[in-house]
Amino acid sequence: MFDYSFALSLLPELWKGFEVTVIATIGGFLIALLVGGILEAGRRSGWRILKHVSNGYIAFVRCTPLLVQLYFVFYVLPAYGIRFSALTTGILCLGLHVGAYLAEVYRAGIDSIAVGQWDAAKALGLRRHAIWLKVVLPQALPPMLPPLGNFLIGLFKETPLLAAITVIDLFGAANAIAGRTFKYNEPYTLAAILLLLVSLIAAYGVHRLERRFAKVQR
Amino acid sequence: MPQLLKGAAVTLQITMMAAVLALVLSFIVAFGRMASNKAARMASTIYVEFLRGTSALVQLFYLFFMLPAFGITLGAMTTAIVGLALNMSAYGAEIVRSAIQSIDKGQHEAGAALGLSRLKVLRLVVIPQAFLLMLPSFGNLLIELIKATSLVSLITLTELTFSGRQMVVTTGRTFEVWGLVLLMYFAMAYPLTWIVRLAENRAARYR
Predict the structure, then answer these.
(1) Bigger pLDDT: A184 or A123?
(2) Contact: B151, A68; criterion CB under 8 Å
């Protein structure tokens, strides 16, 4: 049923796909960190319009499927003369999509800082940027790490969707092999195992992070 | 447009059937994880970790292309519903488990003191309270499910996303079609966010 020598011969091709998956994950997450920050800054700014735009963006992105967002960007933008490679489109979309979720993580982290900290910093005569950099962020950032880690794993698991816009990532490579050889078992099983291994190891790492911060808070 | 609406109807149909199946599975798996039987605990833990560790798309492809090799042929529709329900139930089981475990031990003890059997304590005391806590998370999961149904377009099922792809081929108007598809998903999922907020407020008041 499962042909081991055939499976072994597929590894180089799948590994190449896996490298693309890793690139997409890291690139997408970096963009997401930035997008989430911009959105959260927009929500906290005094400008009403910015607040509405940020909230609207977050609601819309969170209520529509990533796959359709990918199609939209991949097929619509070229009609207006904006052309990216499939992988760039994928990374951009992943970043724009997950960023909407990260804004929530940032918000929860910042909101968890007690009001007294703000008051004390103000009473000490710190300027606005000093309050953020020296008081709020050093306390707010470490507890954000576990949820950020979870979203990184989540993003990693979304990358197979990029295969739908012709990116040859791990899943795309498995598809290509299956389409060529009509053998579905080996490529898909290997792809699933690789995905599972990485996300389980990463989940274990996040779990340890969580435990560490739980201890610190106590 | 009528074609897209037909697709949206299929999307809703898949969502509803998968949601019901996922809900049932969630409870079964959650009780497996809390069982005193070690084998049941192990099996349900592996179930949850495996389904949460791989992506929904890979699982759907696996079901769609692999089961026939084992002599089991499900239609695309059944595969879609079963695949999505399996995936969502892994997340749902964790929601059920954490809600039930968050109910105070005193509630169990009080139930036992009143002479209720363990099953009755669960059914009459614990689950009614836990269910209220689960509602917001289930609402969010339902939004995730609506979005996840777009994946089944890739296993040849003619739902909203697939109809969109067909429309693009026949009309060539990418912007209008994909924009409309996005809006239709939004129209299905966004009202749920209000319901989630309402449920959250309710649950908060109840505490």
Answers:
(1) A123
(2) no
Q: Where are the domains of chain A?
A: 4-217
Cβ within 8 Å, pair A63-B143: yes
Contact check, Cβ <8 Å, B174/A66: no
Please compute the mean of the pLDDT values over residues B82-99 and round it to a whole number: 94
> Nearest CA to A158 among A60, A31, A25?
A25
Contacts with A, B 154-193, CB within 8 Å: 154, 161, 164-165, 168, 174-175, 178-179, 181-182, 185-186, 189-190, 193
Give the whole-angstrom CA distance, residue A126 versus residue A135: 10
**Encoding tokens for residue B165?**
């792809």
Is there a contact between B143 and A64 if contact means CB atoms under 8 Å apart?
no
Residues of B within 8 A of A69 (CB-CB) are: 182
Question: Does residue B151 register a pLDDT over 50?
Answer: yes
Cα-Cα end-to-end distance for chain A: 53
Q: Domains in chain B: how many in total?
A: 1
Could you tell me which of A142, A170, A48, A157 has the C-alpha nearest to residue A97?
Answer: A157
What residue of B is the nearest CA neighbor of A201? B53
- Which one, of A163, A198, A135, lies nearest residue B57 by Cα? A163
C-alpha triplet A207, A211, A217: angle, nearest 5°: 145
pTM over 0.95: no
Taking the domain A4-217, which CATH number applies? 1.10.3720.10
Which pLDDT belongs to residue A187? 87
| Chain B CB within 8 Å of residue A117 CB | no
A2 DSSP assignment: -
Q: What is the CATH classification number for the domain harbouring B105?
A: 1.10.3720.10
Pick the residue from chain A with its C-alpha nearest to B50. A196
Q: Which of left, alpha, beta for A72 (phi over 0: left; psi -120 to 50: alpha)?
A: alpha
CA dist A216 → A45, A104, A108, A209, B136 (Å):
31, 23, 18, 11, 29
Mutate to test the interface with A, among B51, B144, B147 (most CBs of A within 10 A): B147
Domain containing B198 equals: 2-206
- The residue behind tokens 């606005």 is A128
Nearest neighbour of A64 by CB, restricted to B59, B174, B182: B182
Taking only residues 32 to 51 of chain B, the set having a beta carbon closer than 8 angstroms to any beta carbon of chain A reads: 49-50
DSSP B96-118: HHHHHHTS-HHHHHHHHHTT--H
> Interface pTM (ipTM) of the complex?
0.86
